[in-house]
Amino acid sequence: MQFKAEVRPSPIAGTWYISEPDKLASQVDAYISAAVLSEDEYTGRVVGLLAPHAGHRYSGRTAGYAYKMVAGNPRQLVVLLSPFHQYGPGQLLTTMYSVYHTPLGDIPVALEYLRQVDDELRADGLSLEQVARDEEHSLEIQLPFLQRAWQTEFSLLPIMLRTLDGIILQTLAKAIHNAVKDEDFLVIASTDLSHFYPLDLAEALDAEMLRRVRAFSPEQVLSAEQEGSASACGAGAVAAMLWISALTGADQVHILNYSTSADTTGDASSVVGYGAAAVMRSKS
Length: 284
Prior knowledge:
Layout: E1 4-8, H1 21-34, E2 45-51, H2 56-68, E3 77-83, E4 92-95, E5 97-102, E6 105-108, H3 111-123, E7 129-131, H4 137-140, H5 143-150, E8 155-161, H6 166-180, E9 185-190, E10 195-197, H7 199-214, H8 218-227, H9 235-247, E11 252-260, H10 262-265, E12 271-281
Parallel strand pairs: 1-5, 2-9, 3-8, 3-9, 4-7
Antiparallel strand pairs: 2-12, 4-8, 5-6, 10-12, 11-12
């Protein structure tokens, strides 16, 4: 794999989230601070997160719950899995850049880990296809939350998915885990839930998807999307995150918050659903 020795410029700062650093930091801090979680209820170590990826003004409040779970508990490495909403050259994609940029600073890409993942995938007949000048928002939208939740340096292993094939996703999960298992890492799945249904139907569909996430069943997450019984644009990312988390010994999933775009817009006729969840490993 070859990487550009340059920074990926943000294509969404100023539209999907605030471009002014001070205002962005204040807004993200407020979302995280507003999330109220019971420490007695959530015991163990957070291994994985599910977080939404709409514009911050729509889904930031729910995302704040996910990042509240790891605030002040920085990791050295973040495996960030997202869908790829544009046309892409393959099923598994990553960046050509060496650094991601947000208004809050630069985040180095974990190049050697990406190479290790790609090498293992190639042994199984798969590969990571690299993209440049992509406008994918679902991965980048998470970065300011990580930057403000930790305010320390970390590296990023970014992978974008265009597949719901369980065999491919399990192969990817194994390759990622083998590459990073000796590091202090967090794995995040970036996804929204149902899109553009009336509020009552959206809530029913989203409850079913979150039930499957809570059941710690990547297979059920994928089948819901494939059968149409529930929806998540990042279903592949969620399934892969759950499989990676299981390989680390995680044994519980907590749904932290749920909301819809109607909470911001007041329009219940056509909404997008947002969920936050934490995957945890019980204390030994």
